[in-house]
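worker-03 picked up job from queue 'complexes'. Input manifest follows; two sequence lines, order preserved.
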Amino acid sequence: MASLGPNIDELMQALRCLPGVGPKSAQRMTFQLLERNRDGAERLMLSLQAALQNVRHCQRCRILSETELCSRCSDPDRRQDQLCIVEMPSDVLAIEQATAYQGQYFVLNGHLSPLDGIGPETLGIPTLIRWLDSQETEEIILATNPTVEGEATAHYISELARARQIRVTRLAHGIPLGGELEYVDSTTLSHAFAGRGTV
Amino acid sequence: MASLGPNIDELMQALRCLPGVGPKSAQRMTFQLLERNRDGAERLMLSLQAALQNVRHCQRCRILSETELCSRCSDPDRRQDQLCIVEMPSDVLAIEQATAYQGQYFVLNGHLSPLDGIGPETLGIPTLIRWLDSQETEEIILATNPTVEGEATAHYISELARARQIRVTRLAHGIPLGGELEYVDSTTLSHAFAGRGTV
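worker-03 finished. Artifact:
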């Protein structure tokens, strides 16, 4: 492929580290940034610089944070005895937005996946164990994804909790609201059928 | 929506200047960059910085270039009397890749669009006129897009060329190779039918 210059090529390559960006999109983005939106390119450059410098993880719940403790962990009004465990920071945002949950979070930043070398250490399980041993926790809400790896991670953590007599709950499975029975996959439907409740 | 901090929010906003990136993708990209690929984020930041500093336009053909004249304009082996006029730098790359064309290019960096305030000045038409007046040109190949604006731009330039007795050609319209008649839109089909040739 014809090249326009090393800096332009390098920018196209660098953009491909973004999720969902292949060679064609990277080229389109490069031209957009350099041809039509240099202000946007500069803003992106500066914000990357600032974020790389200032964003680290909350020392308590491991979410991305710009302060040592994130805003939720340092909020004295939140319940201290409920702990919701999620895989990703985006899950925290989704739960905060959708529910009235007012307890604590712990972000694994992944799920158990021994084949990829992701074990309990990587997920911060030692930190979680210290948390459970040092602080009264009444309920652990396991909000990992309903995938094979997410379920395995949830099972692993529920064993830790049970050894400490902590009540463990899991998000309910069933038919999504607004969904149509006909289009729900059979595993979900069988879960929903088995878990039917009286009205 | 819950916020993780001003630097993280600013990065999410800044990513939205990329074409095709909405709020959800920007959030996904931000987490990917800060959580899993800080090296990629740093590389992107540095390459943006380098490109913003070093990339300008070729003074002759107006394509993005890191030198005063781009590699094509400074290549003495290319034909000087053929001039292909395109809308975008990516069109030059596409033609270079697909054809054996060995002439000159001129990049408009857009098309005539009076409602958006894009007139001949913005498209570098004065530069083009100086080119046509100062240098022998035998053929102008109009390779603007087959859209209403692209056709209008092509018409405008063909008038300039005709006033200077320069031969003007336009890329052929017709059925794309590998396409099926049934799925070709009716305008293209009628063009292809009217422009049929003897075999």
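worker-03 released lock.
Chain A touches chain B through 58 residues (CB under 8 Å).
Residues 79-170 of chain A form a domain with the Dna Topoisomerase Vi A Subunit; Chain: A, domain 2 fold (CATH 3.40.1360.10).
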